[in-house]
From TrEMBL:
Top-level taxon: Bacteria
Family: Belongs to the ABC transporter superfamily.
Membrane found in the keyword field: yes
Name of the featured protein: ABC transporter ATP-binding protein
One Pfam family, short name: oligo_HPY
Membrane disposition: Peripheral membrane protein
PANTHER family, alphabetized: DIPEPTIDE TRANSPORT ATP-BINDING PROTEIN DPPD, OLIGOPEPTIDE TRANSPORT ATP-BINDING PROTEIN APPD
GO MF term set: ATP binding
Keywords: ATP-binding, Cell membrane, Membrane, Nucleotide-binding, Transport
Domain ABC transporter: 11-257
């Protein structure tokens, strides 16, 4: 279950909880670790807290939000960093790949300005040298005509090209951790695959750790080592990505898998009943109890903890009996 290496975690999240200014809890009991070069997918429906948990790492939460629990990077507490430490952490250790490159890019500035700004301003690199470096970085993400691209504005590039520019910009600062929040959802399907392949290749080449937020279990399984399935502000299952589509142990993970169109089978997707809850809407019991076909009395009153079951971590009172009979994906209530 742990990453194949015994290295210390680069990012270590322990019992993270976030309450908004109005008192609503949006994240609770979230723990995971990512080691250097390791990648984790945070998967779940809308509102489950995936983006919030990335924003917490960067300390970019909505004003007035309160954080409890630990977020440490390379052994240092992110929550305890002062402003200049935080600025250095954001500029040099961690990079965010945005969801929609068009919203993230400044429309009036050239791609060249965007890519060279950090090098010229913060690192004192000469403009010509910074441009040459930017051209090399563009080539690395599959943009061969960099010299010309540097003179262009964001609207002159397709969404796919612009997202490659964002990846090049993220890598320019030589970060150790990439945070990617639905990095391909704003792109068309074929472009999505190309951009994801480049991100994956670059991540491996530079041995970067990555946390990838997505609602797409198959995408997460293809490019991450482990997957944390989130529901209502918490992790309900954490397991190795490989084989998760066969070995899901939490009823929510199984439901997510059943609800997606599976390539190569005749099985029809079956939607999860009801709607996804946010953390503050969940009661005292299991966060998934209202939508779970297997829920019984204790599931509605006592919250299960995320505990080891085989090679998975699972938060379900009934995990042992549900999985005893074989694959949960075949089990009907
Ligand atoms: N800026 C904000 N102010 C107040 N509440 C917010 C804010 N951003 C998110 N929330 C709330 O926090 C909860 C978690 O949202 P979050 O964006 O982390 O979910 P998500 O899993 O990333 O969903 P999506 O896939 O839609 O991005 C939701 O209930 C959401 O409404």
């Amino acid at each position: 279950m742990n990453a194949p290496t015994e290295e210390q975690p680069l990012l270590d999240i322990a019992d993270l909880r976030i309450d908004l200014r109005d008192g609503r809890t949006v994240l609770h009991d979230v723990s995971y670790a990512v080691r250097p070069g390791d990648s984790l997918g945070l998967v779940g429906e809308s509102g489950s807290g995936k983006s919030m948990s990335l924003k917490a790492v960067l300390r970019m939460l909505p004003a007035g939000a309160r954080t409890a629990g630990g977020i440490s990077f390379d052994g240092r507490s992110v929550t305890a960093m002062n402003l200049s430490e935080l600025r250095a952490f954001r500029a040099g250790q961690v990079a965010m790949i945005p969801q929609d490159p068009r919203t993230a890019a400044n429309p009036v500035r050239t791609i060249g300005d965007f890519l060279t700004e950090v090098l010229v301003r913060s690192r004192g690199v000469a403009r010509r040298q910074a441009a040459e470096q930017a051209i090399r970085q563009l080539a690395e993400v599959g943009i061969p005509d960099g010299e010309q691209r540097l003179r262009q504005h964001p609207h002159q590039l397709s969404g796919g090209l612009l997202q490659r520019v964002m990846i090049a910009a993220a890598l320019a600062a030589e970060p150790r951790l990439l945070l990617a929040d639905e990095p391909t959802t704003a792109l068309d399907v074929t472009t999505q695959q190309e951009v994801m392949a480049i991100l994956d290749e670059q991540r491996h080449r530079h041995r970067l750790a990555m946390v990838l937020v997505t609602h797409d279990l198959d995408l997460a399984a293809a490019v991450t080592d482990r997957i944390a399935v989130m529901y209502a502000g918490t992790i309900v299952e954490l397991a190795l990505s490989e084989g998760l589509h066969r070995t899901a142990q939490h009823p929510y993970t199984a439901g997510l898998l059943r609800s997606r169109p599976a390539v190569g089978t005749r099985a029809r997707p079956v939607s999860l009943p009801g709607r996804s809850l946010s953390a503050f809407e969940a009661g005292t019991g299991c966060v998934f109890a209202d939508r779970c076909a297997f829920a019984e009395e204790r599931c509605r009153s006592v919250r299960p903890r995320l505990e080891a079951h085989g090679t998975h971590l699972v938060a379900c009172h009934r995990v042992a009996e549900l999985t005893a009979a074989g694959s949960l994906l075949e089990t009907t209530p």
